[in-house]
Amino acid sequence: MPSTPRHTRMSAAQVVLVLSLLLGLQPITTDLYLPALPGLTQDLGASMAQAQLTLTALLLAFGASQLVWGPISDRFGRRPVLLVGMVAYLLASVASALSESMHTLIIWRALQGVAMGAGVMCARAIVRDLYEPSQGATVMSKGLSGLGVIACLSAPVGGALTSLWGWHAALMTLAVFSAFTLALIALRFEETLVQKNPQALQWKRMLQTWWLILRTPQFVAFSALSMASYGGLFTFLAASSFVYIRVLGFSATQYGLTMFLNSFIYLLGTFACRRMVARYGVRRSVAIAGIFSLVGGGSMALLAQAGVVAGWAIMLPMCCFIFAHGIHQPCGQSGAVAPFPQAAGAASAMNGFLMMVAAFFTGQWLGAHMNGTVFPLAYGMCFWGVLLALTAWTLVKRYGQI
Fold first, then answer.
1. pTM for the whole thing?
2. Topology of domain 12-188+200-399, per CATH?
């Protein structure tokens, strides 16, 4: 079990709560409105490609903004960045819910992504501020368990809200969540960065820091792992609502319950991560999870190729993949930041940026290839499953010693 966090009066439970809410910004921002996406697209008279942009624009802005938020947080601390970011997220959430056109919604979703970058980036940096690298994966898995609870609730709540009051209500719920998180940060969160870096925002120093980060083998290995894992998750997020609702005929509520199942399995994966890391270490745990990733992605593609078009043919392989995701992400995110105690914000930002680059190009590919069948989803999951297994068994095995 991790010890009490260093140099702060916050308890371990308070730290985990803050991490859970900040990391939970990501699934609630994406998962809550997924059941509403087909109806939203029809209501605003938009194309499927435009609908995909509400996700890809958000995630590209989310990834790119972290490259700015990271050095700012290393210079001024995590607390001011979190306060500014959460205020901006709250305003963007209200504006998104009130949007009257798809173009307006895309703009506000992108700004929401910029604000979300502050919260998620700081969460990863906070773990490095307060805990030694050997404890980082365990603490991160606890925060991601909280994320899993939020993800479990997001899709069913989004489906129910969409069925009762439409997509505006689903998006307005994000404003309520962010208001609660903002209040917690303002009233309870203490600064975790002990030694601020006055040179963090100097361009020359920033470039030197990023170059150091990018050429560190441990960062490359764990970032490749987290990129591939998130690429698979995003493939499912971006395509699943159309596959389940339009191809398989699920209702918005049924789709929400399906997403709940996936989130629950992910939650179990984060619990398994803590036990596996304690027993086997990070590298062996990731290698075992790579088997689940490969089986999940590969079996989905094989079933689709065999002509099996049914809900279980998507759900069961995805449960296998998402269980491994609950192991890969805590290990990948904490492992990527671990070598950089004096530049945790910059390392966290670069790791987050690379994950969103993978998501952006995945979204572009899906937007061009979604054709009313299960094949784009199945083949995409197979690609990421194979890549995850190879990364776990090669790069992380060789360079993943924490």
1. 0.77
2. Growth Hormone; Chain: A; (1.20.1250)
